[in-house]
Amino acid sequence: MLANKDGRPLVAVKNGVIAGFAYGEVSRRIAYIPKIIGQISIIYVREEFRRHGLGRQLVEELCRFFSSESVEEVTLNYIVGNKEAEGFWGALGFEPVRISANLRSKELEERLHNPGTRVHNS
After folding, report:
1. How far apart are CA 17 and CA 79, in angstroms?
2. What are the tens digits of pLDDT across the range 14-60?
3. What are phi and psi of 28, to 5 degrees?
């Protein structure tokens, strides 16, 4: 991340303590619109520093970087059901636009080799 010229790592320090961090990067695409995307890869704020605007400050700083790179759209991922993330990103105007689905590889192999077999998570 530190060597990526299209990325921006950030560290938030409060009272000499690392309170949070963030990383965002810019992707340029030829065949898709929008052509320049800002991806917020991670934002983390230590629990004792949450709800004091630090996460918003990290996002603001990433947005300044994205703006300097002519980013047209900002994207990010979070886990469905993570109410804190849903609330934080929703308050900033982010809305889910795609669904990502996961399955353990062994379960997928079983389903491919034995169609109709029900496999339960363990």
Report:
1. 27
2. 999 999 999 999 999 999 999 999 999 999 999 999 999 999 999 99
3. -110, 130
Radius of gyration in angstroms for the set of CA atoms belonging to the chain, rounded to a whole number: 18
Residue type, 99: I
Tokens of 1: 């991340």
φ and ψ of 66, to 5 deg = -60, -40
Question: 12 near 20, Cβ under 8 Å?
Answer: yes
Q: Give all domains of the chain, ordered by start, each with its CATH number.
A: 7-113 (3.40.630.30)
Indicate yes or no: pTM above 0.85.
Answer: no
